[in-house]
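WARN  no MSA supplied for this record, continuing single-sequence
INFO  ligand: adenosine-5'-triphosphate
INFO  echoing inputs
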Amino acid sequence: MNASGKSMKKFRDIARFLKGSGHFLILALAAGMLTTLFNALTPQIIRFTVDHLTGEGTSGDGIIQAVFSQFLPDGQLQGNFLILAAAAVLISASCAGIFTYFSNVFMAKGSEGFLKSMRDQLYRHIQRLPYSWHGKNRTGDIIQRCTNDVEIIRQFICSQLMEVIRIVFLVVLYMAIMFSMNVKLSLIALAFIPVVVGYSLYFYSKISSSFLEADEAEGDLTAKVQENLTGVRVVRAFGREMYEIHRFDEKNDRFANLWIRVGRFMSVYWGAGDFLTGAQAMTILIAGTVFTVQGQMSLGDLIAFVSYNASLAWPIRSLGRVLSNMSKAGVSIDRVTYILDAQEEQDDPWEKEVPMDRDISFEHVHFAYEQDAPVLDDVSFTIPAGSTFAILGGTGSGKSTIVHLLDRLYDLDEGCGKITIGGVDIKNIKKGWVRKNIGMVLQEPFLYSRTIGENISIAKEHPQSHEIRESAGIACVDEAILQFENGYETMVGERGVTLSGGQKQRVAIARMLMQKAPIMVFDDSLSAVDAETDVKIRAALKESMGKSTVILISHRITTLMEADRIMVLDNGRVAEMGTHEELLAQGGIYSKIYDIQMNLDDEALKGGIACE
Ligand SMILES: Nc1ncnc2c1ncn2[C@@H]1O[C@H](COP(=O)(O)OP(=O)(O)OP(=O)(O)O)[C@@H](O)[C@H]1O
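INFO  complex generated
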């Protein structure tokens, strides 16, 4: 596809969001044009009135004369012209007002409808994008695209594009009327239009880099404030308040200076623009007066002409600005279509739902994230259904990657081994089905800004309160929750600040238990819990888990020593495999870590030790 084909495709991608709201924009445009039409009548009425007073007659056969003659015969018209003229001004102003109202109402409906449709579609699409896509794209950037860029596109379609059409209509209409009154004077007025538009176009394209810099400085300042507020505990703990204040001052200064510079540029622009407009008005006035004195036009013509000319000044000046700002939309359309073009995660037709309470098997699995170095190297193991399987390994050894692969967040490439559940390659099992049947608790669980009860019950459609308490009981967090004034109705604040790390982990365990999944994964999810509670939770889990298959990942040997089978992972390779006793007897990595952890004092034991 060539460049213009690509641009058209992008424009079509965006224009489809007009479905359901596009007709409002057309109505807004039509109402806006009618407003312009009625506004154009007033100078004609003034022209007629003035010529009537002075007894000049070039406008005698004009449109207003023709309309008035419809209502009253010539004789009566003479006596009532002032009333008629006043009524005509009032009627045209009222009509203009009414159409302005409708134009704004339709514009708001069309514009908000377009925005809503675009946001809805983007949100829905992002929800369905693969996890790997999220891994490659920064959250802040995605949010920026869904807010700022979407807003710029809305302005482009619903404001700038409409404005350009409205201005072009106004210019064509007014120039047609002006040409009908005096061709020579109209040619002078017309000659200024490209100069004014060209000047503002040139100016705005020149200062767009200053605008961009100032916008970026604003983003920088916001990010600084956000980081500071999020990390307020660290700032206080390290006594970094003054340092943070200085850093903020620097960014704030830069931000202010950049906007002052933009302000200076804009002052030059407005000043020079005023001068240009004034020079044009002066030229029209001088030439118009000469033509009037020469009898080429009436006094009414001159006044009406000057009035039309003045009404053209602002729209023409803003045309350059609007056209120049429209170019920004191209970048935003690119940024939004980048998200929309990303392939959604979809089930292939051959993927099915199979029983998940079966053996899990990794067969010669090799895996690397994108172009990065290999993370898993020939990993093979089998987890019999209903058993507890533990994985021990140093930081970055690939433990979580195994879970990502099992959950189909990433798929294995051809020839890189196989993962099966009940003998079925998981590539042939629906992704949604896999995830629904694998309960997962992560090391740093994410809790929503909702009540604790809602957080626990999120995985279940119609949760019963006794089920919520039951799950919380197994996760040893029921007692702690009841100690809060509002119990299960306690709101978990932004990022769950009202709960301790260990409490959050336990709420996440309770949430996972609600899922009653046949496979449960605990990815270092007891790390923030003290050793005693860890033992209690595991005992309660053992009792309640029934036939579920459990995968335990931990740095703490006491957490996983009772597992049916333990795998030691070293730099993506299976280093050891066996029961606790077998591994101790081998005298390898596992037994070394065991010795270190067992010899540590209680304090260290509570924190857990990384097995590196
Ligand atoms: N989404 C990703 N994209 C690219 N590289 C990744 C991604 N996730 C993990 N890695 C890399 O893969 C390697 C294994 O990471 P993984 O999270 O599986 O280790 P881990 O054993 O669970 O570590 P930890 O105990 O610290 O959680 C690391 O080098 C990590 O940097």
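The chain has three domains: 7-180+328-343, 183-296, 360-606.
INFO  checksum written, moving to next record
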